[in-house]
Amino acid sequence: MKQKIKYMLTVVVLLLTGFVSCKEDRGITNYYHRVNPVVSLTATLDGSDETFYPKEESLKSNDILIDFPFYFPEESEEEIDVSKVKLDIVFHDEVKVLTNIPDRVDLRNPFVIKIENADGKSEDVKIIADVKKSARAQILSFSLPSVGLNGTVVQSVRMIGIDRSGHDLSNLVPEITISGGATISPDPSVAQNFNNRVEYTVTAQDGTQQIYTIEDLASINNFEISKGVNIASWLSTPMYNGAQREAFFTEADIILLKELGFDHIRLCVDEVYLWDDSGNKIRPYGFDLLHNAINWCVKHNMRVLVDMHITRNHRFTLSENTLFTDPNEPAKFVKVWEEMSDELKDYPNSLVAYELLNEPVSGSAANWNRVSALAINAIRAKEADRTIVVGVCTAGGNVRYADLTLPSTHNILLTYHYYGPYLLTAYGLSSTTGGRTDIPIQYPGQLVPNEWISQLPSDWQSTGQRVYTRDVLETNMQAGMNMAQRLNAPVFVGEFGTLNTVPEPSRSNWYRDMVYIMNKYDVPYTSFDYKGKGYSVVNENRTLRFPGIIDILTGK
Q1: Do 309 and 356 share a domain, yes or no?
Q2: pTM for this prediction
Q3: Which domain-ending residue is among 184, 219, 254?
Q4: Are 323 and 313 in contact (CB under 8 A)?
Q5: What share of the chain in percent tops pLDDT 70?
Q6: What CATH number does residue 269 fall under?
Q7: Among 70, 97, 132, which residue terminates a domain?
Q8: Is 243 in a helix, a strand, or coil?
Q9: 97 in the same domain as 154
Q10: 69 touches 131 (CB < 8 A)
Q11: 170: containing domain
Q12: If residue 548 lies in a helix (H) or strand (E), which one and from where to where?
């Protein structure tokens, strides 16, 4: 009998042990951990298309704070009404939402959503409207319409440059645009003598003040950009020749870009369209168009980065270039930039910058360090304060962020490009999906469903299985920002974008996360590209090809 009882107890213990063990195994993935409940959230007001976002840090808690302006529209004096807010909330997959969320939510008080977290425990998620008066006190635009002058606003030093040469500016009334809801003194409707320095004080809604000075444009050397677009297919690998090339990009395009909310262009140029084989400058449909574009930008207060995209001794698609292997070629590259400097040196430093070379490629990053130093020093001998843009070298298929060196950081602007993950951004190319556009792809998340992985070219199957999110993109982009920190120089992302074959909503999701990351770190950016080919966002006739993408890029 004792043996029978002992046997039964043993069975019970084993069963209990197995039960506990199974429960513990399940608990590793489901029951004994919790997650941040909300992955993302956007809010819109009743009767408005404007989107509001939560504070990023609050997404890591159960109190989600959404930034709202005190006045809305911001330039009005009407207090915002948050009594009817539409919420678009993405919860974590392991969270069970217990509260029915109505189509419109009253956020005059915190809105509480009951959930069950991954650990099985009940929690409250609070959506809170964080309504504050704006601290923005900026002059956004400045002009003297009676003499046809547009001021160049440099926010970092709160200076506005105007071209005083050849104008009597002694008794003029300006047109000034300021931050929504802010005030300005003295009254802009009162004429001022702009032959001399003039100060304006802008006061934000919360009382914050900023003083702006109106200066001679020639005295300002700060080249400051925020969001722009690449101009390709015109003076770099042009789609057209002759009069058709001239018509492809005109002043109307600069006006459109300005109206859309861009503040600069990266103007890609190839050596062969500016200099002939004998080294003579090509004026018609070459330098003449380059000058036209810069003058349009000066007229409409747009900055220009003149980017040497392809030279006779360097092409970014090669694994090695004669610029670095032939000892006679560096001198030719320097001569190109000496002549470019002679051609463009009279344009304001605050409006025009030089980019030495697009995506330098060599077997050794030291080669680019050597050649770029020669070019920088040659330009500095002619233009002491011009902003020079320097990219990072790719060697052996790897971008060598840690290897870039500079002879000096004076008015140097660093740049790097980001197209990751390339399987997504170049979706549909023969080099990625074998030219197929029927293979499902998504972002964020695992790029390609498991059942479709075998349909990808073998080189891309492991990439297709990877999970990409905003955090992954941010981690990957840190290398360029770390390079800038190491060299103590500013940096901008000179190219990023996707082919128009990338399906929605993945395409918009990627752009939205890219812009978010760059804004988070105050990194200016230039999307690729404007119009003409597979990455473009505007049609050749200037109609908007992808208005939703443009809104993301311009922050609308």
Answers
A1: yes
A2: 0.81
A3: 219
A4: yes
A5: 94
A6: 3.20.20.80
A7: 132
A8: helix
A9: no
A10: yes
A11: 139-219
A12: helix 547-554
Side chain identity, residue 520: K
Give the residues across from 525 on adjacent strands. 227, 493
261 and 397 both lie in a single domain: yes
CA 215 to chain centre: 29
The closest of 334, 357, 348, 338 to 295, measured between CA atoms, is 348
Same domain, 236 and 307: yes
Question: Would you tell me how many other CB atoms lie within 10 Å of the CB of residue 295?
Answer: 14
Count of domains observed in the chain:
3
Q: Do 234 and 213 share a structural domain?
A: no
Specify whether the CB–CB gap between 117 and 62 falls below 8 A: no
Residues 282/276, Cβ–Cβ less than 8 Å: yes
DSSP 353-415: EEE--SS-B-S-HHHHHHHHHHHHHHHHHH-TT--EEEEPPEETTEE-GGG---S--TTEEEE
* pLDDT tens digits, one per residue of 237-268: 999 999 999 999 999 999 999 999 999 999 99
**Residues 299, 314 within the same domain:** yes
Residue 422 sits in the same domain as residue 319: yes
Q: Cα torsion for 512, 515, 521, 523, to the nearest 10°?
A: 170
Please tell me whether residues 214 and 239 are part of one structural domain. Answer: no
- For residue 50, what pLDDT band results from cuts at 50, 70 and 90? confident
Q: Where are the alpha helices (DSSP H) in 465-532?
A: 470-487, 506-520
CA separation for the pair 141, 451 (Å, rounded): 54
Give the tens place of pLDDT for each residue, 184-216. Answer: 999 999 999 999 999 999 999 999 999 999 999
The closest alpha carbon to 376, from 350, 355, 399, belongs to 355
